[in-house]
Design brief:
The complex is a heterodimer of chains A (233) and B (220).
Chain A (H helix, E strand, L loop, with lengths): L8 H4 L8 E4 L9 H10 L4 E4 L11 H5 L3 E6 L6 H9 L3 E4 L2 H13 L3 E4 L13 E4 L2 E7 L5 E10 L4 E2 L8 H7 L2 E10 L18 E4 L17
Parallel strand pairs in A: 1-2, 1-8, 2-3, 3-4, 8-10, 10-11
Antiparallel strand pairs in A: 5-7, 6-7, 8-9
Chain B lengths: L4 H9 L7 E4 L3 H4 L11 E4 L3 E5 L20 E8 L2 H9 L5 E4 L3 E3 L4 E2 L2 E2 L3 E2 L5 H7 L3 E4 L11 E2 L14 E3 L3 E6 L3 E7 L5 H6 L5 E2 L11
Parallel strand pairs in B: 1-2, 1-5, 5-10, 6-11, 10-12, 14-15
Antiparallel strand pairs in B: 2-3, 3-4, 6-7, 8-9, 12-13, 13-14
The chains are: A alpha/beta (233), B alpha/beta (220).
Chain lengths: 233, 220
C-alpha cells in the first residue's frame, strides 16, 4: 500500500504557488473542498486561475478567496448568486471564462484520461465556439475542445482511506472524481479517513492512484444554498 | 385568460410519455414535476448527478449532500442513482434523456434560443443549457410570451447571445402552445383558455403560422 495521508491542509498545499491553475470540485456549495479553500485563504496565495463549476456564494466557498482578491481568473459554467463576484467581474478586476457545464466536465475527464482534445456539439453557433475548429460528424457540426491543464486539484469526498481511495455521497460527487483525475497534484479532504482495508474495493468511486494527498477535514460546515422542503400535512 | 406559471407547467406535463427520462431546468420547468399525469412513469434527471429525483424533503430531512441543479434540497426515489458530471452529460449528449424543458429569454422562429447572457447587465452563465440544447432531440421551452415591458419574446431572430441554434421544437407560453418548423416558423397549435388568436398574433414578433382551427388548451 502506498500511503497518501498527509497530516493537515497546510501540508497538503505544499508546492501551490501564486499564478497557478487550480481545480475545485463541487456543484454550488455541495461537495466543495471547504478546508482546502480555507487553507489557501490563510496562506494568501494569489493570482490563481480557478476551474470550478461555480464561484461559491458571498463569503463562503470560493467566495472567501474572491473577498481576499486571490483569484485572477474564474473558469466556470454558472456564476450567479455572488454579488462580490459580479462586482469584480464588471469592474474588470476578475477575468471570467464561461463554458458549458458538460464541456467543463469533459475537459476535466479528458485531462485525467490522457485525451488531449475532443469534439462536442455543445456551444456550436454561439460565442463559445468563436475561434474553435468546427467539424461535422454524422451530419452535425461539433467544436474542438481541449483538456484542461491544472497544477492542483482540490476535491472533497465522504470517505477515503490511507491509499487515497475515495467514496462520495449523494450529489456531492459531481465534478470531484473528474477533477481528482485531472490534477497533476490532487488533494482530497474527507469527512472520514479510514485505514486501508476499511473500504470495500467494490464501492470505490476514485482509485487512490489519482489522489496524491489525502487528509481528514477538521470541520465541515456543509452549508445548504437553497433549503427547499415540503410540509408533512 | 393567460395562464400562470403553474398552468404553463401543467400544459407541458401533458407532453410527458411513459418511459421517458426528463431534465427540467430552473424556474417554470421545475413545476412540471407537480403535474405528472396519472399512469405515466418517468424519471427526472438533474445534471448535477442524479436520476430518479424525488420531491423536496420533509422539513428536517434535508441534506447538504442531496441537491438538484438549481441547488435546491431534494430527495431520491426508489431506483435512483448518483453519478459524476461527465457521466451526467454523457447521457445528455448521447440522447438517453428524452425530453428537456427549459426557460428562455428569447426564442426565434427558426428555433434558436437565448437564455444565458444579457451583455453588460446579467452574466450568470449557461450552466448545462448549451449541452442540453445542442444534443436533446426534444426540447420544450417554457416561458412568458412577452417580457415585463410587453415586448414579444418570440422573435424573427434572437437579439441576445444565443445558447443554441435551431434546436427548440415546441414553446409553451402563458398564451399559447406553438411548434417550430424551419419552413413555417412558429405554428400555433393551442390557445390558452379565453385567449384569442388575434391576441397571440399581436404578441408574436416572429413569423406565426395560424392553422384554420386552433383549439383551446384542455387543462383540468
Amino acid at each position: 500500500m502506498i500511503n497518501r495521508i498527509v497530516d493537515n491542509a497546510d501540508i497538503a498545499l505544499e508546492g501551490l504557488e501564486d499564478g497557478m491553475t487550480v481545480m475545485f470540485g463541487g456543484f454550488g456549495l455541495c461537495g466543495i473542498p471547504e478546508n482546502s479553500i480555507a487553507a489557501i485563504r490563510k496562506k494568501g496565495i494569489k493570482n490563481l486561475t480557478c476551474i470550478s463549476n461555480n464561484a461559491g456564494v458571498d463569503h463562503f466557498g470560493l467566495g472567501i478567496l474572491l473577498d481576499n482578491g486571490q483569484i485572477k481568473k474564474m473558469i466556470s459554467s454558472y456564476v450567479g448568486e455572488n454579488d462580490e463576484f459580479e462586482r469584480q467581474m464588471l469592474s474588470g478586476e476578475l477575468e471570467v471564462e464561461l463554458i458549458p457545464q458538460g464541456t467543463l466536465a469533459e475537459r476535466c475527464r479528458a485531462a485525467g484520461a490522457g485525451i488531449p482534445a475532443f469534439f462536442t456539439p455543445a456551444g456550436y453557433g454561439t460565442e463559445v465556439a468563436e475561434g474553435k475548429e468546427v467539424r461535422e460528424f454524422n451530419g452535425k457540426p461539433h467544436i474542438l475542445e481541449h483538456a484542461f491543464d491544472s497544477s492542483f486539484a482540490f476535491v472533497k469526498a465522504w470517505k477515503g482511506d490511507a491509499a487515497g481511495n475515495l467514496i462520495f455521497k449523494g450529489t456531492a460527487r459531481n465534478f470531484n472524481p473528474l477533477m481528482a483525475m485531472a490534477g497533476k497534484i490532487t488533494v482530497a479532504e474527507v469527512e472520514q479517513l479510514l485505514p486501508a482495508g476499511q473500504l470495500d474495493p467494490n464501492e470505490i468511486h476514485v482509485p487512490g492512484i489519482f489522489v496524491h494527498r489525502i487528509y481528514q477535514g477538521p470541520a465541515f460546515e456543509k452549508r445548504i444554498e437553497q433549503r427547499t422542503v415540503r410540509s408533512r400535512s | 385568460m393567460a395562464l400562470d406559471k403553474n398552468g404553463i407547467a401543467q400544459r407541458i406535463a401533458q407532453e410527458l410519455q411513459s418511459g421517458w427520462y426528463v431534465n427540467l431546468g430552473i424556474g417554470i420547468p421545475t413545476l412540471v414535476a407537480n403535474y405528472i399525469p396519472e399512469g405515466i412513469d418517468i424519471e427526472f434527471q438533474s445534471e448535477n448527478g442524479i436520476l430518479g429525483m424525488g420531491p423536496f424533503p420533509f422539513e428536517g430531512e434535508e441534506s447538504p449532500d442531496l441537491i438538484n441543479a438549481g441547488k435546491q434540497t431534494i430527495t431520491a426515489l426508489d431506483g435512483a442513482s448518483f453519478f459524476d458530471s461527465a457521466t451526467s452529460f454523457a447521457m445528455i449528449r448521447a440522447q438517453k434523456v428524452q425530453l428537456t424543458v427549459l426557460g428562455a429569454m428569447e426564442v426565434s422562429e427558426n428555433g434558436d434560443i437565448a437564455n444565458w447572457k444579457i451583455p453588460g447587465k446579467m452574466v450568470k452563465g449557461m450552466g448545462g443549457a448549451m449541452d442540453l440544447v445542442a444534443s436533446a432531440e426534444n426540447i420544450i421551452v417554457a416561458m412568458q410570451h412577452c417580457n415585463r415591458k410587453g415586448a414579444s419574446k418570440l422573435l424573427k431572430a434572437c437579439s441576445l447571445p444565443i445558447t443554441g441554434v435551431q434546436c427548440v421544437k415546441k414553446v409553451v407560453t402563458d398564451l399559447a402552445v406553438m411548434d417550430i418548423d424551419p419552413d413555417q416558423g412558429f405554428i400555433l397549435r393551442e390557445r390558452a383558455p379565453g385567449v384569442s388568436v388575434e391576441a397571440i398574433v399581436a404578441a408574436t414578433e416572429g413569423r406565426l403560422t395560424v392553422p384554420e382551427h386552433v383549439p383551446e388548451m384542455q387543462l383540468d
